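Proteins fold. Shown next:

***
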Amino acid sequence: MSDPAGGPAPDIRAGLEGFTQRAEASIARLRDIQSQIDALVPPQQAHAVRAEMDGDGLLVELIIEQDLPAAELEHEIGLAIADAARRRPTPDPAQLQAGFRAAARAGELDLGRILEQLFAGHDPSTQPAAHRNAHNTVEVSAQSGFVRRVRCDHAWLTSTSREGVADEVRRTVNEAVTASARPGRA
């Protein structure tokens, strides 16, 4: 299963590299399809909230620009995060591959779990477990490093400053994304 240098065997390494190439091609095709859909039916845009993500899907910025009723603010936060996810930089394939190789060398890679997570992502009835902050005021559902839903306690939204809401949502989203983005790791 492993070569004398301690890494995965050449056939496993070749399989992972082939899988990576197919995944990159699939991601490029999905982005193309999404662009075509967006051209036909432009996605809703947030008007009172701005968000930016890095290549790992972590929120690096969440700014609430105006006060809104709680339900509308919750909706705007979701729209801003969805827009940031569409615009986020593409992850570096070499970095992803290095991460998988390191996990394989450390014995932390579970191919069965990777396949389970990949196929679960295609089933819309599969809902990931929600990640909640310590105060149960923010709930984030994320799967395979992508945010699927953000919900907030409406009483908390109306009684907390914009900056406080933005910080807590950003922190909770990043925790949920990080926890969900470890495919196949024990």
User: Anything to note?
Assistant: The chain has a mean pLDDT of 83. The chain is about 50% helix and 15% strand. The first strand starts at residue 49 and ends at 53.
